[in-house]
């Protein structure tokens, strides 16, 4: 469950998705009434959001979008780590986890028999919390473990997940942050009644069962954070920015000391204080009847009673008068962050100005950082970002050093752009371009229910939705910002009043790991089912008919010279996406990815590279060249009204880009630094380790240009490749409002094709290895945790297996209700993250692979491996879970709508597998025919008792290589072997 939202996502939500177009439009609060309920709305709100306040104070915000038969739901409370008691930090996050454990009505076999044990456990934690003697604490924890085992005999683990899966929900999750805790579900449109019945019960009287195993999952989450240099940097940055405010003084996940001393009574008090209707909101965005939904919500949640909620009285932070310098040590790549403390979301004028300032500096195309730093390759990468909260906003500048550059030099370059900003040395027309691009982002964002719901919930958390008028008029307000206002704002707020954070490579000797307690595995009662779940399943739901693609009807075809055209019309808005798709990538020519990267830094005889970026940004269009392993795609997108300008400009760039030796030399240096940084990143190392385990020493991950090859590449080589790219066979894909004939004519006018396509270079072949015996591939990394992947390659792709494999993955290891998750995390508390699946290839002549994963504390690694091996060798049977998996799979397909250019890419993916029809139809028609015996036989034939390659990433300080020999022959891989450079 995510704790920290990415700052860039917040920026997009704030600056794009809640914006609206049209300076001539009027925005004002109005009142409406429908279905017996009064609501408020903003005139000309593109989301057409209705704001209801029920009698008990519960806020309900509804936004109808009929595009797909699904609804994104969010239930949020305005309480997060800010509201944690200072002696129980992490409490809001604990509670978030526990609200998945059920109530008296579900999650229990027999509440009357379970309750005395839970009361006993609560009392024991009270005693444990107050006990300081180590020996006595160990004795008490042993009692907690013992009584928890007895209580678990009456618990039904993951019944909430089964309830949601059974109704076809997706994305079951939640997150806690500084000012919020939000619970997320994506449900079918016909499941509203079931959803509300479950949620109203869920929040009525939650039971904190299976607490000590869930607590261990939180320990694991904390330890993962201790291995995450980014998380450590984030927390230190906030601590320095906010020496008195809870933003900086109370981390969301809590301190190690408080994690070791949980208090169930304090958690219950938090729930009773903040989970009240006048502090909560239900947001729904999607396909529904708002009159029916508001009445149903009112009926379902009328039991909630309003009561006063204590507000966190935020201290006013003293001004920062000189840079505060901090340093974080860790194994990951070095970087620098400059963070400013700014006015919060309630200061709407400052919020608008800060959003414009941020985008003047960094908008991805034409900002000061984009043009002066990134385009000129002065650093490895530079960016600006916002984290906007109620009381304060955090504005950051961040950068990574290129080869031979110090972090201090990066810092000076970043601060230099602020000086340029304060002098007003930027084009005033940039503000107009920012507004145009915000309009584009709004059109894109309105298509997605998740964007709608999160934007609305964000407004509730910050100001209870009362400033939605400001949010709706945001783009208009941005358009009114003058250059002088930007300069004045920068002069006022962007001085020497910042926190300077250096993330340096080195050993962090201050990490305090949460030690593993002794936990006896508990019952999960897979076959058990409460009467409540039967009741929910019995609620009638209008059937939703699945919709299959008919590639012959849903895709129109044409020709531009030799090139095939695949076309789907956009009937929703004025956006277009044009693709040139080549069936060749790095496996055909290792220079292709380098050439694609090089192009973004090149100019022509007519334009500099900076001018090209500005031109694209000014017309609210984009281009991207991406070269993968077996395909290269050029994408041009934006407003259809600027189609001709955008395509003409890109074609000019591709045809006339000029070689630049200096740019290439700098790019090579940045690539070398990026490669060095990759070797410091545990995620990249593990990815390479798995690829090695799957393919052997020569694999797709390390298929890289060698140092000698990279040195030998010339600017002329790359430019020649770019100039001749259209001469290779490719498919033209268009999704936009133009009719097919007009689209073909428009492309033909701009896109020049040869009389004969050049022959595509042969692709290098990578062959998956046979796992004839167990072996261990090990890579050393300075970390608290250990991460283990199991890899086994099996048979060649067979489309007849698709339905069986889909159901197997859903049942065995694909989610929180799966066998793997229930066993490894819920029963044995061995990991925060675990999964297993049978991976299908994307080409018809390739092989399947079985993959499993556990990330655990290093001292629990042996137990975790043993636990996963048991499941790989023997698949537990749960008829009820199996039926739930079937229901979930069918409902997912019934409510899935493949639309827009997704139709074309689904068709192309099917072609690679040798299929000419929508494979989902075959899956849907065969799911009901599959029995557990079929799944068990498949498991026995492909997973059970078979040899695996164990890919293990851990610290040699924490585990013994000799100990790993019991799993198979051990090979310690160097980073050069893994990365190929």
Report on the architecture of this protein:
- With 981 residues, the protein is an alpha+beta fold.
- Among the domains are: 80-274, 2-Layer Sandwich (Cytochrome Bc1 Complex, Chain A, domain 1), CATH 3.30.830; 551-659 and 714-750, Metalloenzyme, LuxS/M16 peptidase-like (Cytochrome Bc1 Complex, Chain A, domain 1, 2-Layer Sandwich); 775-979, Cytochrome Bc1 Complex, Chain A, domain 1 (2-Layer Sandwich).
- It is 43% helix and 18% strand.
- The chain contains 39 helices and 25 strands.
- The strands form 5 sheets. Strands 3-4-8-5-7-6 form a 6-stranded mixed β-sheet, sandwiched between helices.
- Strand 1 (29-34) and strand 2 form a beta hairpin.
- Helix 2 packs across helix 11 (264-274) and helix 3 packs antiparallel against helix 4 (134-152).
- It is globular, with a radius of gyration of 29 Å.
- It starts with 6 loop residues before the first helix and ends with a helix.
- Mean pLDDT is 93; it is low at 1-24.
């Amino acid at each position: 469950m995510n704790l920290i939202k990415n700052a860039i996502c917040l920026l997009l939500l704030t600056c794009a998705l809640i914006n609206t177009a049209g300076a001539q439009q009027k925005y004002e609060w109005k009142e409406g009434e429908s279905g017996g309920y009064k609501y408020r709305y903003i005139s000309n709100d593109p989301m057409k959001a209705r704001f209801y306040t029920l009698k008990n104070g519960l806020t309900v915000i509804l936004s109808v979008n009929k595009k797909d038969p699904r609804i994104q739901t969010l239930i949020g409370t305005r309480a997060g780590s800010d509201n944690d008691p200072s002696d129980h930090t992490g409490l809001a996050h604990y509670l978030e986890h526990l609200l998945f454990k059920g109530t008296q009505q579900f999650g229990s076999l027999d509440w009357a028999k379970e309750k005395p044990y839970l009361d006993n456990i609560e009392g024991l934690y009270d005693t444990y919390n107050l006990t300081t003697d180590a020996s006595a604490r160990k004795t008490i924890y042993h009692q907690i473990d013992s009584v928890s085992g007895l209580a678990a005999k009456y618990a039904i683990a993951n019944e909430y997940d089964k309830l949601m899966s059974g109704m076809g929900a997706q994305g079951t999750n939640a997150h806690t942050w500084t000012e919020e805790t939000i619970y997320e579900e994506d449900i079918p449109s016909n499941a509203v009644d079931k959803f509300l019945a479950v949620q109203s019960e869920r929040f009525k009287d939650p039971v904190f069962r299976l607490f000590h195993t869930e607590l261990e999952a939180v320990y694991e989450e904390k330890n993962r954070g201790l291995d995450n240099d980014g998380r450590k940097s984030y927390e230190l940055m906030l601590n320095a920015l906010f020496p008195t405010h809870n933003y900086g003084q109370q981390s969301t996940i809590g301190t190690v000391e408080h994690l070791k001393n949980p208090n169930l009574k304090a958690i219950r008090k938090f729930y009773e204080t903040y989970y009240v209707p006048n502090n909560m909101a239900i947001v729904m965005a999607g396909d529904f009847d708002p009159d029916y939904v508001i009445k149903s919500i009112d009926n379902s949640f009328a039991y909630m009673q309003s009561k006063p909620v204590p507000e966190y009285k935020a201290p006013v932070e003293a001004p920062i008068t000189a840079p505060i310098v901090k340093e974080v040590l860790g194994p990951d790549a070095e970087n620098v962050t400059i963070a400013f403390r700014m006015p919060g979301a309630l200061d709407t004028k400052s919020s608008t100005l800060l959003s414009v300032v941020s985008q003047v500096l960094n908008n991805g195309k034409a900002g000061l950082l984009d043009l002066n730093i990134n385009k000129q390759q002065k650093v490895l990468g530079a960016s600006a970002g916002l984290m906007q909260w109620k009381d304060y906003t955090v504005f950051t500048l961040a950068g990574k050093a290129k080869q031979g550059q110090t972090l201090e030099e990066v810092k000076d370059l970043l601060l230099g752009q602020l000086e340029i900003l304060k002098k007003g040395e930027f084009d005033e027309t940039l503000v107009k371009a920012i507004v145009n691009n915000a309009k584009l982002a709004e059109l894109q964002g309105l298509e997605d229910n998740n964007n709608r719901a999160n934007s609305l919930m964000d407004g509730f958390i910050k100001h209870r939705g009362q400033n939605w008028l400001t949010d709706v008029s945001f783009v208009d307000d941005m358009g009114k910002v003058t250059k002088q206002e930007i300069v004045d704002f920068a002069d006022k707020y962007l001085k020497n009043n910042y926190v300077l954070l250096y993330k340096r490579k080195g050993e962090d000797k201050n990490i305090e790991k949460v030690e593993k307690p002794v936990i006896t595995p508990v019952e999960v009662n897979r076959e058990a089912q409460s009467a409540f779940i039967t009741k929910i399943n019995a609620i009638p739901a209008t059937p939703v008919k699945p919709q299959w693609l008919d590639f012959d009807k849903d895709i129109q075809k044409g020709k531009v010279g030799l090139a095939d055209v695949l076309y789907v019309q956009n009937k929703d808005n004025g956006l277009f996406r044009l693709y040139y798709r080549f069936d060749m990538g790095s496996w055909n020519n290792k220079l292709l990815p380098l050439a694609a990267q090089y192009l973004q830094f090149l100019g022509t005889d007519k334009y500099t590279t900076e001018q090209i970026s500005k031109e694209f940004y000014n017309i609210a269009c984009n281009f991207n060249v991406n070269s993968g392993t077996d395909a290269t795609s050029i994408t041009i997108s934006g407003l259809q009204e600027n189609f001709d300008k955008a395509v003409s400009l890109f074609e000019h760039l591709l045809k006339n880009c000029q070689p630049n030796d200096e740019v290439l030399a700098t790019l090579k240096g940045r690539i070398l630094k990026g490669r060095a940084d990759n070797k410091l990143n545990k995620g990249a190392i593990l990815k390479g380790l798995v690829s090695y385990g799957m393919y052997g020493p020569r694999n797709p991950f390390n298929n890289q240009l060698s140092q000698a090859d990279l040195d030998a590449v010339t600017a002329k080589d790359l430019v020649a490749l770019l100039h001749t790219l259209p001469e290779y066979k490719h498919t033209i894909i268009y999704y936009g409002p133009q009719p097919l004939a007009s689209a073909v004519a428009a492309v033909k006018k701009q896109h020049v094709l040869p009389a004969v396509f050049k022959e595509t270079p042969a692709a290098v072949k990578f062959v998956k290895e046979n796992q004839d015996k167990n072996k261990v591939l090990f890579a050393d990394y300075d970390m608290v945790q250990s991460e283990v992947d199991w890899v086994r390659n099996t048979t060649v792709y067979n489309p007849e297996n698709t339905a069986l494999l889909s159901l197997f993955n859903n049942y065995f290891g694909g989610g929180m209700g799966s066998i793997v998750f229930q066993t490894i995390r819920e029963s044995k508390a061995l990991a925060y993250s675990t999964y297993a699946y049978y991976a299908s290839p994307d080409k018809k002549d390739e092989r399947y692979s079985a993959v499993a994963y556990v990330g655990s504390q290093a001292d629990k690694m042996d137990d975790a491996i043993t636990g996963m091996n048991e499941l790989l060798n023997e698949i537990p049977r749960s008829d009820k879970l199996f039926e739930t998996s079937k229901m979930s799979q069918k409902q997912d397909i019934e409510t899935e709508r493949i639309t827009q250019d997704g139709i074309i890419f689904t068709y192309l993916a099917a072609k690679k597998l040798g299929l000419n029809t929508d494979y989902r139809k075959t899956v849907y028609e065969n799911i009901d025919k599959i029995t557990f015996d079929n799944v068990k036989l498949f498991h026995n034939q492909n997973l059970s008792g078979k040899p695996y390659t164990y890919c293990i990433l851990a610290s040699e300080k924490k585990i013994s290589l000799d100990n790993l020999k019991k799993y198979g022959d051990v090979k310690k891989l160097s980073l050069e072997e893994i990365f190929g450079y």
